[in-house]
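Appendix B. Chain record.
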Amino acid sequence: MLTIATPQLNPAEWQDVRATLNAVADCGCAEPAVAGSLRSRLGHAIGALIGPKKAASAPLPVHLRPVRDFLCETGRTRRLAERHVPSLSAQGFSRAQIEALALLGA
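Structure tokens predicted for this chain:
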């Protein structure tokens, strides 16, 4: 479990955090399989056996990939993924918002 105190954010900052989490909610942590790869072929074979999977979601926009990577690593390690913090800061997230993303999204 993450040991971060609840960040002090104003309502607009919480709204940004919520909107960001909603935008990456169903993106998953794995990259899609490369066409023709063993993973892709296995996925198609399994799909043929058990039926089609649910409709694929739209690809994740490029600007949200650092958020996804941060959340995935934080969730895997149960520690704040510090190496992703600079890219999130460059997108305009404050340290408090980054900690809120970690607490709510990981």
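Further analysis of this model is presented in Appendix C.
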